[in-house]
Amino acid sequence: MNKNLYQKCENSLLDDELTCKKISFNLNKNKDQDNTDSLVKLTNEFKFEDCKDEYWNPEKYSLLYGTPIWDQSSKAQKIKLNQLYWVGYYSQIISAEIATIFLNQTSAAGLYGMEDFKEVCDTLDFESSQERTHIDAFKKISEQVEEKIFGERIFTYPMKNFATETMVFQDTNYIKEYWKKIQLHYFAYLSSSNAFIASQYLTVRGLRTLNGKIIQHELSQYYNQHPDQENAPIPSKISYHHFLDESYHFNSSTIIGHDVVKSLKQPTFFERKIANMAIRGCQIDHANFSVSVNGIFWYEPALFKKTYQILRSSIFNMPHDTAVNMLEKCFCEENQGVHEAYKTNKIAQESYREYLKNLDFLSEDNRDIIYMKNVSIKNYLTKNKLMFRKFKKRDGYEI
Q: What is the pTM of this model?
């Protein structure tokens, strides 16, 4: 058929043969290696008792790694901290993937209004089905672990709406949460009817998962290099299969956000403004680092109470005053864990800067990752000390 008969837009994705090939190749490869069946099987087979005495991740990916509590922990305690890292890390991934499922669909709606975008939308549809399997696996295993160890939730939570704060532990309050909800709903509305804004959701998605891709590769290596893969702990197998899926998701984020966008009309001032606000919001969300779960951008003071619960639990059995003193040493004093977490944040900044550098519709401030530049060990410790004093008074944890 003469393509002039069905091309109704000035630019067509069909005119960009290389990008079309990239989309098709990435989608077909993802379908060929789809890990859904493996993840469902592993989730159904998981029993905490079968692997409760084993590491699930490389040692450095343990809760509070490099802090004073890690240094004085026994081998059995370190194993529990390693397992709780898995629970904490993937509890955050659940939150991100809930939002991803919804915004994949609104973005597909916005792009499908253009000619020739069917395969792009098929990619997003297929990835959403994979995300549901990921969420189910992380949620069932994490909840079983916390039930067995604590008898209550620590990092897990009931299923939530996409417009709830994506970052599970952050510096927030009711007004901030309400304002974020309004912004997310408005962005979803815009992306469902505007192809450029829809495409730039994928740039945001790529940026949000870039550091995750680096961390998840490391987590996947525990199984990949395990001397007895058949009997490796199931959570490590899930990390491996999840990483395989997410590698293709990251590829599609980059192709749509960086290459497909070239087949759209030049963005208007308003469209550029929305894209820049979304990137700025991502930077603000990632302008923290956490010694609790290195690789996640959690706001540490929001974790004081959770960490206190862990120290008081059967894992450590710490008296009240010992637990409070240990919290202060881990979060308010310089230690190896602080330096490791800060290093991860710096790697993220460098990766983000490289990822965004060729997107000329973004502001210089966004391309230079200026909103994350105030991250420092000094600022981290100063903020933690201030909030720790308030935490002790507010929650009655004074010694």
A: 0.94
